[in-house]
Here is the input.
Amino acid sequence: MRLSGDLDIEVLRKSLNEIIRRHEVLRTTFVMGDDKAVQIIAPELDLNIEVVDLHSLPEEVRELEVHRHLTEEAQKPFDLAHGPLVRASLLSLGLTRSSGITEYVMLFTLHHIVSDGWSTAVLIREFITLYEAFSKDKTSPLPELPIQYADYAVWQRKWLQGERLEQQLN
Here is the structure.
């Protein structure tokens, strides 16, 4: 996610950690038990954000470094049994000549076992809402979640049986 302007890294960290608190799946690891994966939900997870300062590089080199970091991050493995299955880093690009505004690239990397394309839009909306609230010293305006992904998975497993399962398999 590209961010522009004044950025409070502590508010950013608080926003990401609130998202992780809200969504159990982001605190989940998976271990093998009785020949099948078992999910373990941690009661809490305080995610550290690695900050990488690229502002001293020439502007034309910064984008190359951003892409290098993106590629490196995407190729870094996760440990499903020990987690966490989420990582965050912030690339500080400094002022750009064209806009004169400080630019950042935030990398929020999630293992595909805990997130999908649809979830990404939800996480971005929640991040924006939380960052805006926390930057004004307000509490989270987001309501507690009535169900978690594990609840949905149980429902889906019960629903997806018999003829429905056969249709999906076909």
The mean pLDDT is 91. Strands lie at 2-4, 28-33, 36-41, 49-53, 86-95, 102-110. The longest strand covers residues 86-95.
